[in-house]
Amino acid sequence: MTAERSDARPRAHVQIYVDDNPVPIADETLPTRIKLNTYTLPDGAHRITVHATDVTGKVSVREIPFKVDNGPGLAVTGLAPDSVRHGVIELGVNAFSADEPFEPERAETHSSIPVWVWVMTLIIVAWAAWYGARMWDVPQQFAKTPTYAAQSLTATGNPADPR
Question: pTM, whole model, 2 decimals?
Fold first, then answer.
């Protein structure tokens, strides 16, 4: 007489779907780790749907939206998302990938100087002008000291009377 060992108890498992594809990219027992190769997906918005089933047969579903961007880095200046514009809009566009050879001319995306930089520059220039004007006005107690007094030499080489 032989005894058969039966390990047919239910196991928790998960099925993972990408977008609206009815075929799962993974159907594994839990716990598990799945690798998703985004190079097989076109750039843009996608969605992963995870169906997990526990040992009692209860199912839980979670959808996770994500964005694929495997192409070159894209920079567009001159138009902010959801902005309201009128007239002619000038756009600056640059795209660069780490796989491309380095081109110094394309290495930086040119854009206008932000307003906060102009404001800070004006504040610093105004402060420097104020500081310079305040230092121009020598306090009376220091006006006759060698540092501030006018030192003009006469023909004899003696300092002139600063009166």
Answer: 0.49
